[in-house]
Specification:
This is PIN domain-containing protein. This protein has 2 domains: 51 residues, no CATH class; 57 residues, no CATH class. It is built from 6 helices and 2 strands. It has a two-stranded parallel sheet with strand order 1-2.
Length: 125
């Protein structure tokens, strides 16, 4: 991840840990502290229950599921996203996947919102 996204790793967030003590799971404090340090607007996690709105909203941060984040990102530039996903699908060789099978696989992995966005464009995938 760090190779693709230079800022993927956040260090020296200890100064922000004190703002994270009210999280339901103390083991998630580092995630919120890193978000605060980088002034992130969104935490992408499928562990939404441990990042309640009541804690995040006053900090101007929202928690989004992976599926919602991917679906929203695709919607920002649908044509480009469809082309990229098509290229990804065409690189799959073992096994090759039809657009329909790719969507079924994505749905099976819990990407239902993402599939809903892409379904109307299945012939272009």
């Amino acid at each position: 991840m760090e190779e693709a996204f230079e800022d993927a790793s956040v260090d020296d967030y200890d100064d922000f840990l004190s703002a994270c003590i009210s999280l339901p799971d103390a083991n998630d404090a580092h995630v919120l502290a890193a978000a605060l340090k980088t002034q992130a607007a969104t935490i992408v996690t499928d562990n939404l229950k441990d990042f309640p709105e009541t804690i995040l909203t006053p900090l101007n941060i929202e928690a989004r599921s992976t599926d919602a984040f991917i679906a929203d990102t695709i919607s920002l530039d649908l044509g480009r996203a469809v082309a990229v996903i098509r290229n990804m699908r065409l690189r799959l060789k073992r096994p090759e996947k039809t657009p329909q099978i790719l969507l079924l696989d994505m749905e099976a992995e819990g990407l239902t919102e993402t599939v809903d966005v892409l379904r109307a464009h299945v012939q272009s995938l």
